[in-house]
Automatic annotation (TrEMBL):
SUPFAM superfamilies, per database record: Phage tail protein-like
The organism of origin for this protein: Chromobacterium phragmitis
UniProt protein name: Gp37 protein
InterPro entries in the cross-refs: Gp37-like (IPR038042), Gp37/STM4215 (IPR018602), Phage_tail_protein-like_sf (IPR035934)
Length: 154
């Protein structure tokens, strides 16, 4: 399975390709210190965590995994074709149904208003996708095929 970082990177790349008029970056490590320097706005991608289901009985540990991701929309304008409300639609159109590496198609799970401060409107679009968490197999513990016989044995 793709790593969590690879999955987040793919989400960022998708948004950059589909919404080139906005800055797309990872959610800041210090949100209180975040400063929007882009003239229109930004999309901030974050990982909200995962939930794991019971393992599938397959002789190895293989667990269904639901990954939760969020895109925070930070814009200087609320309404109109380039405002936060319209960009929410653009984000959903770009991501819902998109298949991230080693995952099922993305689904929207929630959307919420985060607030308005210093002329910046903020909303969050939450998304989820499913994948499988599979144990790494230590090949040294497994039998190794050393001979192949193409003849049938009675």
């Amino acid at each position: 399975m793709a790593t969590t970082v690879e999955i987040i990177d793919a989400l960022v790349a998708r948004l950059q390709a589909r919404l080139p008029g906005l800055l797309v970056e990872y959610f800041p490590e210090r949100p209180a210190e975040y400063r929007l320097n882009h003239p229109a706005g930004a999309l901030l991608v974050s990982y909200l965590g995962s939930q794991f289901a019971a393992p599938v009985d397959a002789g190895i540990v293989a667990q269904p995994r639901t990954l939760k991701l969020s895109v925070t929309v930070v814009l200087r304008q609320l309404n109109g074709r380039t405002g936060a409300v319209a960009v929410l639609d653009d984000v959903r159109r770009a991501l819902v149904g998109y298949r991230l590496p080693d995952c099922r198609k993305l689904q929207a799970t929630a959307e919420r208003f985060l607030g308005q401060t210093s002329g910046l409107w903020q909303y969050a679009v939450d998304l989820a996708t499913q994948g499988m968490q599979i144990e790494e197999d230590d090949a040294a513990d497994s039998p190794i095929l050393t001979q192949v016989n193409h003849e049938e044995q009675p």
